[in-house]
Amino acid sequence: MSKAIVTYFSASGVTAKAAMQLADALGCGVYEIVPKVPYTDEDLNWMNSKSRSSLEMKGGADHPELADTAADFSAYDTVFVGFPIWWYVAPTIINRFLEAYDFSGKKIILFATSGGSGFGKTAAALKKSAPAAEIVQGKLLNGMSAAEIKAWADSLGI
Ligand SMILES: Cc1cc2nc3c(=O)[nH]c(=O)nc-3n(C[C@H](O)[C@H](O)[C@H](O)COP(=O)(O)O)c2cc1C
Q1: Closest CA to 110 of 33, 13, 45, 58
Q2: DSSP annotation of 140
Q3: What is the pTM of this model?
Q4: How far is the CA of 115 from the centre of ligand 1 (A)?
Q5: CA torsion 94→31→137→106, rounded to 10°?
Q6: Which atom of ligand 1 is nearest to the CA of 57?
Q7: Cβ within 8 Å of residue 15, ≥6 positions away
């Protein structure tokens, strides 16, 4: 049996809720990916092309720093990574997270929430940050009940 952990970044709580339900269903632990500098509402304003999130996502700013880079994922062979879709892909803090640790040989299963967009090129955009991991496009958990999330978790055979 493989050992799994659910990691996630959530700016406004939607992905966090889904992550908790997924971890409950899998019976595994959770790890929150936290930015060193929290996002304010204005940082998240995608209608402002100069907002922090706009600049980060459009290459006008470095990937945000992590609050913690000393976690230990060595015991896990399956790492779920959850996030909100930002500008059709994962927020760049997810790239920073994948680059901060050695995920070589591990299976990374993506899950996300969004306002409606799908994964698009998300997996490809993350692959460069964890080239030696197997990145699997998991599921968009938009509006899914705990029971639906459990059914997905069970289908993975973890
Ligand atoms: C900066 C920013 C960009 C976003 N870009 C998209 C997008 O491209 N497509 C989409 O469907 N939703 C987009 N959204 C909406 C979020 O994906 C959605 O509200 C998500 O469920 C929020 O999750 P959270 O509460 O875990 O942060 C964006 C939100 C923000 C703040």
Answers
A1: 33
A2: E
A3: 0.98
A4: 6
A5: 100
A6: 1
A7: 8, 9, 82, 83, 84, 112, 113, 141
Q: Which tokens sit at 22?
A: 């997924």
Q: Is 51 in the pocket of ligand 1 (CB under 6 A)?
A: no
Residue 15 CA to ligand 1 center (angstroms) comes to: 10
> What integer pLDDT is reported at residue 132 of this predicted model?
97
Residue 54: HSE in the Cβ half-sphere, 13 Å Cα cutoff: 10
Structure tokens at 130: 């964890």
Centroid of ligand 1 to alpha carbon of 83 (angstroms): 9
For the stretch 60-88, pLDDT in tens is 999 999 999 999 999 999 999 999 999 99
Look over the chain and give the mean of its residue pLDDT values, rounded to a whole number. Answer: 96
Contacts 24+ apart (CB under 8 A), 53-58: 53/86, 53/91, 56/91, 56/92, 57/86, 57/87, 57/89, 57/91, 57/92, 58/87
Among 139, 38, 121, 144, which residue's Cα sits nearest to residue 83? 139
Query: How far from chain centre, in Å, is Cα 90?
Result: 7
